[in-house]
Write a structure and sequence with these properties.
Radius of gyration: 31 Å
GO cellular component, one term: NADH dehydrogenase complex
Distance between the termini: 105 Å
Number of strands: 2
CATH class of one domain: Mainly Alpha
Subcellular location: Cell membrane; Membrane
Number of helices: 5
Helix content: 55-70%
Pfam family, one: Oxidored_q4
Strand order of the largest sheet: 1-2
Protein name: NADH-quinone oxidoreductase subunit A
InterPro entries: NAD(P)H_OxRDtase_bac/plastid (IPR023043), NADH_UbQ/plastoQ_OxRdtase_su3 (IPR000440), NDAH_ubi_oxred_su3_sf (IPR038430)
CATH superfamily of one domain: NADH:ubiquinone/plastoquinone oxidoreductase, chain 3
CATH topology of one domain: Methane Monooxygenase Hydroxylase, Chain G, domain 1
CATH architecture of one domain: Up-down Bundle
Shape: flat
């Protein structure tokens, strides 16, 4: 058997799969075009979420802290997946695996402590932090309250 015939015979299932997938996608797109609604109205083109009309502009600026928290979530969520995989194979990994997982958790905790120390998880604005100098706190007596 020639080489080209052997290659085609070997990969015929993949070719049938690709042709079938493209045909199915084309069929779904064409059926949606012909069977879909054709009504046009101004109210149909207005976006809404859960039946509530949108208010404001879609170009609203968001604080970078939202993205920062999203990145922290993804990072720590992926690490939780690693720990889940480790917990499934805990008997096979033994004490060496336990020590490695402990080091892994320690590094994660060190990263979380660092984030808390630099204020990356602090949502209050910088102006609202009240810095009190040592020795400036005084007690208010009842006489000074009466004067107010």
């Amino acid at each position: 058997m020639p080489i080209t015939t052997g290659v085609i015979a070997h990969h015929w299932a993949f070719a049938v799969f690709c042709i079938g997938a493209m045909g199915l996608c084309s069929l779904m797109l064409l059926s949606a075009f012909f069977l879909g609604g054709k009504a046009r109205a101004r109210a149909k083109n207005i976006p809404y979420e859960s039946g509530i009309d949108s208010v404001g502009s879609a170009r609203m600026r968001l604080s970078a802290k939202f993205y920062l928290v999203a990145m922290f979530f993804v990072i720590f969520d992926v690490e939780a997946l690693y720990l889940y995989a480790w917990s499934i194979s805990i008997r096979e990994s033994g004490w060496i695996g336990f020590i490695e997982a402990s080091i892994f958790i320690f590094v994660l905790l060190a990263g979380l402590i660092y984030l808390v120390r630099i204020g990356a998880l602090d949502w209050t604005p910088g102006q609202s932090h009240r810095r009190v100098k040592p020795g400036t706190i005084t007690t208010i007596s009842s006489r000074s309250l009466q004067k107010l």
